């Protein structure tokens, strides 16, 4: 069977010049028209396999760099070329029609524009959301804010899986901290992941699409959640995976992703941790409170930016991909891919979560996960 990244010589695929790798004599098609590749040696006419990386990565359809698309794909191409092989890509020119791309800034989020008249926005659920006339500014709206002492929410700290303290604050208070006009104990991150854009900041709905049309058509569903992200550079998302097809759109600033494919599961450690939550005292200090009613949480203890290879030697065999998603770009992050995220200060982003299909890919990952645990690699 041919490799997922190669085609037989008589293939009629257009725009894919044949490339032969000297060290392994593997002949593959080069980058397709309209696709460029991020990373050293990518898209230069050389072998996509950076030796001594084993050839099985190609067999698993795992790219060695995150490809760029110069325009949004058609639903067919998105499903065939990216969803089915479970491969990430960064899509340029996918948000150019969003008013948010020109309007959203920290001053705009503080003052915004008054809502005019009455209207209805058809949101991701398919239901209409009334947008009422109001003189209230965006900045006066209360939002859920994650507060941590070190920027790590939902992460392993010592022998605990620690969740952030959650405070309800006017968005203007977060903006004051981001703009250096005020101080707040700890690191602030607007990151509530339960469709917080339509539920907490409905004023901003007219500036974005309620879903990604070509993705919704390809996946045959509407997104389960549409989330708004805003925070300090110190706010970091620890390494984890989600059961969602994720379309992550950066409106302002940059997001820095470190990715691992699902096939790296044998090299990524998991352990069980007692869950706990940060609490912010009146004196401004943080305390940890165990969540005794909750079961232990399986989580990844490893920091991929500074891995302890003495404790987790198998991680040296994992193949990390790094990419930066800039303003106006959209990352397609396939379901079950591990990801660690950093950001520029004051980065503004919106993401769409589409529930994954629990098909053969999911069964394959469950098998790999079970074999990893049975072999004692964890």
UniProtKB/TrEMBL annotation:
<keyword id="KW-0963">Cytoplasm</keyword>
<comment type="subunit">
    <text>Homodimer; disulfide-linked. Interacts with DRG1 and DRG2.</text>
</comment>
<keyword id="KW-0378">Hydrolase</keyword>
<dbReference type="GO" id="GO:0005737">
    <property type="term" value="C:cytoplasm"/>
</dbReference>
<dbReference type="GO" id="GO:0005634">
    <property type="term" value="C:nucleus"/>
</dbReference>
<keyword id="KW-0560">Oxidoreductase</keyword>
<dbReference type="InterPro" id="IPR014710">
    <property type="entry name" value="RmlC-like_jellyroll"/>
</dbReference>
<comment type="function">
    <text>Bifunctional enzyme that acts both as an endopeptidase and 2-oxoglutarate-dependent monooxygenase. Endopeptidase that cleaves histones N-terminal tails at the carboxyl side of methylated arginine or lysine residues, to generate 'tailless nucleosomes', which may trigger transcription elongation. Preferentially recognizes and cleaves monomethylated and dimethylated arginine residues of histones H2, H3 and H4. After initial cleavage, continues to digest histones tails via its aminopeptidase activity. Additionally, may play a role in protein biosynthesis by modifying the translation machinery.</text>
</comment>
<feature type="domain" description="JmjC">
    <location>
        <begin position="190"/>
        <end position="369"/>
    </location>
</feature>
<dbReference type="InterPro" id="IPR003347">
    <property type="entry name" value="JmjC_dom"/>
</dbReference>
<keyword id="KW-0479">Metal-binding</keyword>
<dbReference type="GO" id="GO:0046872">
    <property type="term" value="F:metal ion binding"/>
</dbReference>
<keyword id="KW-0408">Iron</keyword>
<keyword id="KW-0539">Nucleus</keyword>
<dbReference type="GO" id="GO:0106155">
    <property type="term" value="F:peptidyl-lysine 3-dioxygenase activity"/>
</dbReference>
<dbReference type="Pfam" id="PF13621">
    <property type="entry name" value="Cupin_8"/>
</dbReference>
<dbReference type="InterPro" id="IPR041667">
    <property type="entry name" value="Cupin_8"/>
</dbReference>
<protein>
    <recommendedName>
        <fullName>Bifunctional peptidase and (3S)-lysyl hydroxylase JMJD7</fullName>
        <ecNumber>1.14.11.63</ecNumber>
    </recommendedName>
</protein>
<dbReference type="GO" id="GO:0016787">
    <property type="term" value="F:hydrolase activity"/>
</dbReference>
<keyword id="KW-1015">Disulfide bond</keyword>
